[in-house]
Each structure stands twice: as C-alpha cells, then as structure tokens.
C-alpha cells in the first residue's frame, strides 16, 4: 500500500510516516565553537508544492547516510521523520514546526514530482512588521530593499 502524500502545512508534532515531496533550497552546518568546531547537525530549508518552507535538521550521527544526496535545487520524497516544535527564540521559517530525520527516514531524490515544485522562496515584510521584529532576536534580517517608497525585507531562501 502506498504511503499518503501530505504537505508541510498538514504536519503535526510526532512521528510522520506520510510522504512529503519538496525541493532542497539551502543547507548549512551547525558547529559547536566551544568544542573546536565540532559538527552538531545540518540545517536544511525545503519548500513544498504549496510554497511552504520548512526547516529540516539532520543530526551529525545521521548525516553520513544523507550527505551525498544534499544538493541545493534537488527534489526529494521524504518520509519516516519526526515533527517537532521550533525553538521560539529563533525560527528560520514562518512555521512553528520543523522536521528531524530519525533512524527510519527515507530521503529519495525525485526526477518527476507529482506536481511542479517551486525553485525559490521569499519572505516579504512591510514596515510595521519590521518595527515589530526590531530587537526581538527572533529572526535574522535578509536583504533590505525599497519598493514604491515602502521598505521591505526579503529573506532569500534559495541559492
């Protein structure tokens, strides 16, 4: 029996055996500077068919089985992962949830997804939203641009 396909917006906390099709936008290492730069985990940003961006974390111990597959822009079918809450003091996306790979995670490259996947994602903020975020240390600002006399922050989440 085929596993059910879901979107990032359908996810709830706990173990998920459903399948999500998504594109890997960007990834980077998280290192512990107090321990000589020891690798702790890899953070990924992925986008699904609905343009919902989700943070994904792979711990250092699980990274060897996935590392060779990590290429920005590649599309994947992901299943068998844990969904947990993001740290409230710093979130990489608008979602309050994140995906954590576990011992049963399947991460298969897709050549033809069921639906076209976005190639990039952006987050736009108006002036009042920027003022509300000022000095909260909850989000990293991206590139500041001016459009029609209004100031916006664009967080470019693609490569």
TrEMBL record:
Superkingdom of the organism of origin: Eukaryota
Gene3D superfamilies, A to Z: Nucleic acid-binding proteins
SUPFAM superfamilies documented for this protein: Nucleic acid-binding proteins
Domain Replication protein A 70 kDa DNA-binding subunit B/D first OB fold positions: 17-107
UniProt name for this protein: Replication protein A 70 kDa DNA-binding subunit B/D first OB fold domain-containing protein
Lineage: Eukaryota, Viridiplantae, Streptophyta, Embryophyta, Tracheophyta
């Amino acid at each position: 029996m085929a596993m059910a396909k879901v979107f990032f917006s359908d996810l709830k906390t706990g173990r998920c055996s459903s399948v999500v099709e998504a594109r890997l936008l960007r990834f980077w290492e998280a290192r512990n500077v107090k321990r000589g730069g020891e690798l702790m985990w890899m953070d990924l940003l992925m986008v699904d068919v609905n343009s919902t961006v989700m943070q994904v974390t792979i711990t250092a111990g699980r990274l060897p089985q996935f590392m060779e597959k990590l290429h920005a822009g590649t599309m994947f079918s992901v299943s068998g992962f844990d969904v947990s809450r993001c740290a409230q003091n710093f979130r990489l996306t608008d979602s309050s949830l994140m995906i954590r790979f576990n011992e049963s995670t399947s991460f298969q490259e897709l050549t033809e997804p069921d639906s076209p996947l976005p190639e990039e994602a952006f987050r736009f903020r108006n002036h009042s939203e920027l003022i509300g975020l000022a000095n909260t240390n909850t989000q990293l600002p991206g590139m500041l641009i001016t459009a029609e006399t209004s100031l916006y922050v664009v967080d470019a989440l693609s490569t």
